[in-house]
TrEMBL record:
UniProt entry tagged with the keyword Glycoprotein: yes
GO CC terms of this entry: extracellular space
Keyword Hydrolase: no
PANTHER family: CHORDIN-LIKE PROTEIN 1, VWFC DOMAIN-CONTAINING PROTEIN
A Pfam family per the record: CHRDL_1_2_C
Domain of life: Eukaryota
Keywords: Developmental protein, Glycoprotein, Repeat, Secreted, Signal
Lineage of the species this protein comes from: Eukaryota, Metazoa, Chordata, Craniata, Vertebrata
Single Gene Ontology MF annotation: BMP binding
Name of protein: CRDL1 protein
Positions of transmembrane segments: none
Main location: secreted
Compartment annotation: Secreted
Domain Chordin-like protein 1/2 C-terminal: 10-129
Length: 129
């Protein structure tokens, strides 16, 4: 069932901080789940795609690729899921490095889900920035 996605504007700011669009793509092939989290950066203008290959809940393979915005627009399956700040993206990237080592030998489904939640910004009350 399609859930209407919120409309994001490119110049969105969160409490005065610049935000970047975050995209996700999840598909399954041959018993593996390929989950991709992508962020669009302005400097340099590119898309950074974090690719996780998960088999039976265990993170089997993890890598990062960078593509141009034009190349990214041609990729299928990506949906914008949120916007995030540079500092939240840094937390995500650092957590991802820790999880990739920790999850080579055990099931880490919840850790990966929790890591993605880091990217979502909590709307603050006006004046509480």
């Amino acid at each position: 069932e399609e859930v209407p996605s919120p409309i994001f504007d490119n110049n969105d700011y969160f409490c005065g901080k610049e935000t970047f669009p975050v995209y996700e793509s999840v598909f399954t092939e041959e018993g593996e789940t390929i989950r991709k989290i992508a962020v669009e950066t302005e400097k340099p203008p590119q898309i950074e795609i974090h690719v996780w290959t998960i088999r039976k809940g265990i993170l089997r393979h993890f890598y990062v690729e960078k593509v141009s915005k034009r190349e990214f627009e041609e990729l299928p399956y990506f949906k914008q899921i949120t916007r995030t700040t540079p500092s939240q993206w840094k937390i995500f990237s650092e957590g991802e490095a820790q999880i990739s080592q920790m999850c080579e030998s055990r099931v880490c489904r919840t850790e990966l889900e929790d890591l993605v939640k880091v990217l979502y910004l909590e709307k603050s009350e006006k004046g509480h920035c």
